[in-house]
Amino acid sequence: MTAALSVENLEVVYHHTIQVLRGLSLEVPERGIVALLGANGAGKTTTLKAVSGLLPLENGAIGGGGIRFRGERIDHVAPHRLARRGIVHVREGRRVFEDLTVQENLVAAANALAGRAAQPDFALVYGYFPRLAERRRQLAGYLSGGEQQMLAIGRALVAEPALMLLDEPSLGLAPLVVEEIFGIIARINAERGVAMLLVEQNAMAAFGIAAYGYIMESGRVVIDGPTARLVNDPDVQRFYLGYGEQTTEVASFRDVKHYKRRKRWLS
Amino acid sequence: MSGAIDWLLLAEFSLVGLLSGGVLALIALGFVLVYKGTRVINFALGEFMMVGAYLFWTANVFLALPWWAALALTLAGVAALGALVERFVLRPLAGQPVISIVMATIGLGAVLHGLAEAVWGGANLSLPELLPRKPLLLGEILLPGQVLWSFALAVALIAAFTAYFRWSKDGVSMRAAASDPVTAYAMGIDVRRTQRLTWMFAGVTGAVAGIIVASMTSLSPSLGTVALGVLAVVILGGLDSIAGAIVAGLIVGLLESLTVAFVGGQARDLVPYLVVLVILMVRPYGLFGTRDIERL
Fold first, then answer.
1. In this structure, is residue B196 part of a structural domain?
2. pLDDT tens across B171-185, in order?
3. Predicted ipTM beyond 0.90
4. Burial of residue A192, with CB atoms counted within 10 A of its CB: 0-12 exposed, 13-18 middle, 19 or more buried
5. pLDDT tens digits for B112-123?
6. Are B276 and B232 in contact (CB under 8 A)?
7. Does B174 touch chain A if contact means CB atoms closer than 8 Å?
8. Does the beta-carbon distance from B189 to A111 stay under 8 Å?
9. What residues of chain A lie within 8 A of the CB of B183, using their CB?
10. N or C: which end of chain B has fewer CB within 10 A?
11. CATH tag for A30-56+85-215+223-232 (out of 3.30.420.40, 3.30.1480.10, 3.40.50.10160, 3.40.50.300)
C-alpha cells in the first residue's frame, strides 16, 4: 500500500543560501500518526511547510529530493491546491484569523472543499470542540490559547483532510489543556481516519498518541522507529525525554562532555 | 431675531453637509477595501475615479449609449483595470517593503493621469446630469436633489459591500486572506484571487464615486485630486474600518458645510482637516481603526 505521505531525500534552502534540510526522508502511512521530534532549528517546521507548499511564500525552495502524496509528486503544487486535495497544515502558534468570529474562521476554512462535492460540516467541528460552539459568534482573537488551538484544529477538520500536518499543538498551553487537545487529536485520527504528521517539542505528549517517530537534527533524521522502541532508547530518553541515566545527579562538566560525545554520535 | 434664522441655517447646512459626506464615505471605502485586503494605501484611487468618469463619458456621451449600458461598460472597464493593476503592478512587488508598493501606486496614478490627458485631452468635459435635480423640502429646509440622490447611491453601495464582506463566503475569505495570507493559503483560499477581487471592487467604488463627482461638477484629468483630501477622511475613520470610513465621511462633510456657512468658502478646505488633525492626536488609530488585539 502506498503511504499517505512520503518524503525522499528532501533538501530545502532559504534565500538561496541557508540550507535547512539535508536529505530528509520520512513516511506517514494512511490513517497513521507519525511524530517528528527534534530541537529548535532542526528543520521540523520547514519540513511541514515543504509538504504543504507554504515554503515559496517564505523565500524557501526545494533544492532536491521529492514529496509524494498518495504516490503523486506534489512538490511544486500551489498551497491552496494542496489544501483542496486534502493536505491541511495547522500552523505553529495557532494562527487563527483574529478579527473573524469562530464561525467565520470555519467558513473561511471551507475553501479547502472547493472542487469537492462535500458540504462543510460545522456540526462535526462543534461536536469535537463543544467549547467553540459556545463561542461561535466571538472574535477568535479573544479566545484563550487552548480555544484558539481547538479552532485551528477545527478549521483543519472542516477541510475533511486525508493528511493533517500539526505544528506544535501543545505550544504555550497548560498541561491539562495539552492532554485534552491530544485526546481529541487521537480521536480525530481514529474516528475520521486522518493520517497525521505531528511536530512536537513535547516528546512525551507526542509519543502518547503516535505509533512511529522520527527524530531530527540539523536537517536530517538521526533516529527513527516505533514509538514503543524510541521511548525505551537510552539516548532518546536522555536527550528528548529528559530522564534516564544520571539525570538525577548534579550536572557536572563530565556530563557535558558525555552529552557532546553522544550528540556527535547521534548526528 | 437673528437667533432663529441661524438655527435654520445651521440645520440646513448640517443636513446638506451630512448628505454630501456620503460621497466622501464612498471614496473612503475605496481606500479601506484595498488597505484591508492588501495592506496597501492606493494613491491611484483618485485616478481610478477619473478613469471611471472618462469611460462613462465615452460610452454615454461620445458613443451615445443609454446610461445603464454606459454604467455597465464603465464598471466592467474599471474592474478590468483593477485586475490588471493587481496582476502587473502589485503581484511582481509582493514581498517588497510597503513603501515601494505605495510609491508604485503613486507612479501608477501619474501614468493614468498622463494617459487620460493623452486620450481625452486636458479640457473640461461635462457629463449629463444623471441625478434628478428636484429638491426636497423639509419644512423650511431645502435639500438639493443631487446631494440627496448621491447620498442615497453611496449608502446603497456601501451597504451592499458591507453585507458582502459580512455574509458571503467570498467576503469572509477575503477578510481571512487579508488578516493572514499564508494561513489563508493553507486553508485552501486562493489568495491571489481574493486580492484581484479586492482591486476590482476598489475600481468599481472609485468609478461610481468618480461619475457622481464629475456629474455634479465637471470632468477633467485632475478630478482625481479629490481623493487625496479623502485620504484624511480615511485616516480619521481608521484605515481598516468600513464603519469608520462612513462616520468620518459624514463628519468631514458636515464640517465642510458648516465651515462654508459660518466661516466662509475660503476656509472650506482648511477647517475640517484641522479638526481631523486634532482628533488624530487624541486617537492615533482613527475613530474605528483596530488596535492589534493585545493578549495579556
1. yes
2. 999 999 988 999 999
3. no
4. middle
5. 999 999 999 888
6. yes
7. no
8. yes
9. 91, 95, 97
10. C
11. 3.40.50.300
